[in-house]
Backbone:
Protein backbone atom coordinates (compact mmCIF):
# COMPACT_ATOMS: atom_id res chain seq x y z
CA UNK A 1 0.00 0.00 0.00
CA UNK A 2 1.09 3.47 -0.76
CA UNK A 3 1.79 5.75 2.16
CA UNK A 4 -0.18 8.90 2.68
CA UNK A 5 2.91 10.96 1.87
CA UNK A 6 3.45 9.12 -1.43
CA UNK A 7 -0.21 9.57 -2.40
CA UNK A 8 0.03 13.29 -1.75
CA UNK A 9 3.21 13.49 -3.81
CA UNK A 10 1.56 11.71 -6.76
CA UNK A 11 -1.43 14.10 -6.53
CA UNK A 12 0.84 17.15 -6.63
CA UNK A 13 2.82 15.80 -9.59
CA UNK A 14 -0.38 15.02 -11.51
CA UNK A 15 -1.81 18.48 -10.85
CA UNK A 16 1.38 20.11 -12.11
CA UNK A 17 1.81 17.91 -15.20
CA UNK A 18 -1.55 16.39 -16.14
CA UNK A 19 -3.95 19.30 -15.65
CA UNK A 20 -2.09 21.72 -17.96
CA UNK A 21 -1.68 18.89 -20.49
CA UNK A 22 -5.43 18.17 -20.41
CA UNK A 23 -6.23 21.86 -20.79
CA UNK A 24 -3.92 22.02 -23.80
CA UNK A 25 -5.94 19.19 -25.36
CA UNK A 26 -9.20 21.12 -24.87
CA UNK A 27 -9.46 23.33 -27.94
CA UNK A 28 -11.83 25.74 -26.17
CA UNK A 29 -9.64 26.31 -23.09
CA UNK A 30 -8.82 29.96 -22.69
CA UNK A 31 -10.98 31.04 -25.63
CA UNK A 32 -13.74 33.58 -25.14
CA UNK A 33 -17.23 32.20 -25.58
CA UNK A 34 -18.79 35.43 -26.82
CA UNK A 35 -19.52 35.71 -30.53
CA UNK A 36 -18.30 38.93 -32.09
CA UNK A 37 -20.91 40.73 -34.16
CA UNK A 38 -19.79 42.79 -37.10
CA UNK A 39 -21.62 43.89 -40.19
CA UNK A 40 -22.33 47.44 -41.23
CA UNK A 41 -23.02 49.89 -38.42
CA UNK A 42 -25.68 52.57 -38.58
CA UNK A 43 -24.42 55.38 -40.79
CA UNK A 44 -22.13 53.11 -42.83
CA UNK A 45 -22.69 52.11 -46.45
CA UNK A 46 -24.64 48.86 -46.79
CA UNK A 47 -22.69 46.19 -48.69
CA UNK A 48 -24.28 45.63 -52.09
CA UNK A 49 -25.17 42.14 -53.25
CA UNK A 50 -27.11 40.12 -55.79
CA UNK A 51 -29.14 37.04 -54.87
CA UNK A 52 -31.71 34.84 -56.62
CA UNK A 53 -35.26 35.33 -55.44
CA UNK A 54 -38.73 33.84 -55.31
CA UNK A 55 -42.13 35.14 -54.32
CA UNK A 56 -45.61 33.69 -53.86
CA UNK A 57 -46.02 33.41 -57.63
CA UNK A 58 -42.82 31.47 -58.32
CA UNK A 59 -39.08 31.66 -58.80
CA UNK A 60 -37.67 34.86 -60.26
CA UNK A 61 -35.75 34.81 -63.56
CA UNK A 62 -32.22 33.45 -63.13
CA UNK A 63 -30.80 36.31 -65.20
CA UNK A 64 -32.54 38.91 -63.00
CA UNK A 65 -31.43 38.36 -59.39
CA UNK A 66 -32.36 40.86 -56.72
CA UNK A 67 -29.67 43.59 -56.71
CA UNK A 68 -29.53 45.95 -53.72
CA UNK A 69 -27.69 48.56 -55.80
CA UNK A 70 -30.70 48.86 -58.13
CA UNK A 71 -32.87 49.97 -55.20
CA UNK A 72 -30.70 53.01 -54.45
CA UNK A 73 -33.02 55.94 -53.82
CA UNK A 74 -35.52 53.76 -51.93
CA UNK A 75 -35.74 52.57 -48.34
CA UNK A 76 -34.96 48.85 -48.20
CA UNK A 77 -35.63 46.43 -45.35
CA UNK A 78 -33.35 43.38 -45.22
CA UNK A 79 -34.82 40.71 -42.94
CA UNK A 80 -32.44 37.78 -42.40
CA UNK A 81 -34.15 34.78 -40.82
CA UNK A 82 -33.23 31.16 -39.99
CA UNK A 83 -35.63 28.99 -41.99
CA UNK A 84 -38.93 28.83 -43.84
CA UNK A 85 -41.86 27.10 -42.13
CA UNK A 86 -40.44 27.33 -38.58
CA UNK A 87 -42.57 28.89 -35.85
CA UNK A 88 -40.49 32.04 -35.25
CA UNK A 89 -39.93 32.72 -38.93
CA UNK A 90 -43.58 32.12 -39.75
CA UNK A 91 -44.60 34.53 -36.96
CA UNK A 92 -42.19 37.19 -38.25
CA UNK A 93 -43.25 36.92 -41.89
CA UNK A 94 -46.96 36.78 -40.98
CA UNK A 95 -46.53 39.99 -38.98
CA UNK A 96 -44.68 41.65 -41.86
CA UNK A 97 -47.50 40.64 -44.23
CA UNK A 98 -50.35 41.61 -41.88
CA UNK A 99 -48.81 45.01 -41.09
CA UNK A 100 -47.29 45.58 -44.52
CA UNK A 101 -49.12 48.80 -45.36
CA UNK A 102 -48.72 50.42 -41.94
CA UNK A 103 -45.20 49.13 -41.23
CA UNK A 104 -43.61 49.53 -44.65
CA UNK A 105 -45.89 51.22 -47.17
CA UNK A 106 -45.69 51.12 -50.96
CA UNK A 107 -42.39 53.03 -51.28
CA UNK A 108 -40.39 50.58 -49.15
CA UNK A 109 -38.71 47.48 -50.60
CA UNK A 110 -38.80 44.49 -48.26
CA UNK A 111 -36.80 41.30 -48.79
CA UNK A 112 -36.50 38.25 -46.56
CA UNK A 113 -33.23 36.32 -46.75
CA UNK A 114 -32.48 32.77 -45.62
CA UNK A 115 -30.56 29.68 -46.70
CA UNK A 116 -33.68 27.98 -48.04
CA UNK A 117 -34.03 26.99 -51.69
CA UNK A 118 -36.03 29.08 -54.12
CA UNK A 119 -38.66 26.33 -54.40
CA UNK A 120 -39.10 26.28 -50.61
CA UNK A 121 -39.32 30.08 -50.63
CA UNK A 122 -42.11 29.94 -53.21
CA UNK A 123 -44.12 27.46 -51.11
CA UNK A 124 -43.52 29.53 -47.94
CA UNK A 125 -44.41 32.87 -49.57
CA UNK A 126 -47.51 31.33 -51.17
CA UNK A 127 -48.69 29.72 -47.93
CA UNK A 128 -48.50 33.07 -46.10
CA UNK A 129 -49.48 35.32 -49.02
CA UNK A 130 -46.29 37.35 -48.62
CA UNK A 131 -46.29 40.57 -50.67
CA UNK A 132 -42.48 40.68 -50.95
CA UNK A 133 -39.58 38.62 -52.28
CA UNK A 134 -37.57 35.99 -50.44
CA UNK A 135 -33.90 35.69 -51.36
CA UNK A 136 -31.80 32.54 -51.22
CA UNK A 137 -28.29 32.72 -49.69
CA UNK A 138 -27.45 29.01 -49.18
CA UNK A 139 -23.75 29.57 -48.43
CA UNK A 140 -24.49 32.58 -46.20
CA UNK A 141 -22.14 34.79 -48.23
CA UNK A 142 -24.36 37.86 -47.91
CA UNK A 143 -25.32 36.92 -44.36
CA UNK A 144 -21.64 37.03 -43.35
CA UNK A 145 -21.35 40.59 -44.66
CA UNK A 146 -24.34 41.57 -42.50
CA UNK A 147 -23.36 39.68 -39.31
CA UNK A 148 -26.33 37.36 -39.86
CA UNK A 149 -24.55 34.05 -40.46
CA UNK A 150 -24.42 31.28 -37.91
CA UNK A 151 -22.30 28.15 -37.57
CA UNK A 152 -25.47 26.06 -37.27
CA UNK A 153 -25.99 26.36 -41.03
CA UNK A 154 -28.98 28.67 -40.57
CA UNK A 155 -28.99 32.44 -40.38
CA UNK A 156 -29.46 34.55 -37.30
CA UNK A 157 -32.60 36.68 -37.16
CA UNK A 158 -31.45 40.22 -37.96
CA UNK A 159 -33.09 43.23 -39.57
CA UNK A 160 -31.49 46.16 -41.38
CA UNK A 161 -33.04 49.30 -42.83
CA UNK A 162 -31.03 50.75 -45.69
CA UNK A 163 -31.85 54.37 -46.51
CA UNK A 164 -32.23 55.92 -49.96
CA UNK A 165 -28.57 57.03 -49.74
CA UNK A 166 -27.42 53.41 -49.45
CA UNK A 167 -26.42 53.76 -45.79
CA UNK A 168 -27.64 51.66 -42.89
CA UNK A 169 -30.29 53.62 -40.97
CA UNK A 170 -31.16 50.87 -38.49
CA UNK A 171 -29.88 47.47 -37.51
CA UNK A 172 -31.12 44.94 -35.00
CA UNK A 173 -28.83 41.92 -34.76
CA UNK A 174 -31.13 40.20 -32.25
CA UNK A 175 -34.57 40.84 -33.73
CA UNK A 176 -37.23 39.09 -31.63
CA UNK A 177 -40.06 37.98 -33.90
CA UNK A 178 -42.46 37.56 -30.98
CA UNK A 179 -41.94 40.99 -29.37
CA UNK A 180 -44.35 43.69 -30.61
CA UNK A 181 -41.96 46.44 -29.48
CA UNK A 182 -39.44 45.20 -32.05
CA UNK A 183 -41.90 45.90 -34.87
CA UNK A 184 -42.70 49.33 -33.42
CA UNK A 185 -38.96 50.13 -33.31
CA UNK A 186 -38.56 48.90 -36.90
CA UNK A 187 -41.55 50.99 -38.03
CA UNK A 188 -40.07 54.12 -36.41
CA UNK A 189 -36.75 53.48 -38.16
CA UNK A 190 -38.50 53.13 -41.52
CA UNK A 191 -40.41 56.37 -41.00
CA UNK A 192 -37.15 58.18 -40.12
CA UNK A 193 -35.49 56.73 -43.22
CA UNK A 194 -38.36 57.97 -45.39
CA UNK A 195 -38.13 61.40 -43.76
CA UNK A 196 -41.41 61.07 -41.87
Residues:
Amino acid sequence: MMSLRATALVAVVLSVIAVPWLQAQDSTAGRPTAVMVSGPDVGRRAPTFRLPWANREGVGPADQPYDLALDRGKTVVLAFYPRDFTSGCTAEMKTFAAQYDSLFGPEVVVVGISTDSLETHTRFASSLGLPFRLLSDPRQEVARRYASNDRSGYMRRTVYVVGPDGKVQYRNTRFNALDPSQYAELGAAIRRSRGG
About this structure: Residues 4-25 form the longest helix (22 residues). The chain has six helices and nine strands. The radius of gyration is 24 Å. The beta strands are 50-51, 53-55, 58-59, 66-67, 75-80, 108-114, 133-136, 158-162, 168-172.
